[in-house]
Design a protein that fits this description.
This protein is an all-alpha fold and about 180 residues long. It contains 10 helices and no strands. Residues about 145-155 have low confidence and may be disordered.
């Protein structure tokens, strides 16, 4: 803990300290939890790094854990709107919407993120996870594929075939059979 307090204005260390204190509180019985120290750390973080995406995500997690998922989702949405190129914030916002059962809204958020930032693997993964949460395996596979990247199952089979071929080549050169 001394390492975390040695640099009191370092956002990374403050965030780590907040997470450590939060985990400690979560291990206590619900009636014995005291979040005042976490709230103090969050206020300090808001002073030194108000636009830190880690802070926005932590605050949303913290609020959600205290059974107020709607406020957490609203907070993430507000932060994502302020930082339109911050993909992790948009994904966290969509994830919160999805956990709230608002799949269509989550999809719109991810689509808007993709329009704003371009096509990224983490957005495709989030879209795939959203489709999977809805039980849509075809849509899940489509998002994994991306634009012209190819189906992951096909890619995995290609890699497997290449490994088998490499093993056979090695066996021919060493005189060992792999059958």
């Amino acid at each position: 803990s001394q390492g975390l307090t040695a640099m009191p204005a370092d956002p990374t260390l403050l965030l780590a300290q907040a997470r450590m204190v939060w985990r400690s509180q979560l291990s206590r019985p619900y009636a014995q939890r005291d979040y005042t120290s976490i709230e103090r750390i969050v206020r300090k973080l808001e002073e030194v790094a108000p636009n830190d995406p880690g802070l926005a995500i932590f605050k949303a997690d913290f609020v959600a854990a205290r059974t107020n998922i709607q406020d957490a989702v609203a907070s993430l949405g507000e932060s994502a709107r302020k930082q339109p190129n911050n993909i992790p914030l948009w994904i966290a916002w969509a994830s919160g919407l999805s956990r709230s059962g608002k799949f269509a809204e989550a999809r719109k958020v991810l689509d808007e993120c993709r329009q704003t930032t371009g096509d990224h693997a983490d957005i495709r993964l989030a879209l795939s996870q959203l489709a999977q949460a809805q039980g849509d395996d075809e849509d899940r596979t489509q998002h994994h594929a991306g634009d012209g990247v190819g189906d992951l199952d096909v890619e995995a089979e290609d890699v497997r075939q290449q490994l088998v071929a490499a093993q056979q080549d090695a066996a021919e050169h060493t005189g060992h059979r792999t059958d």
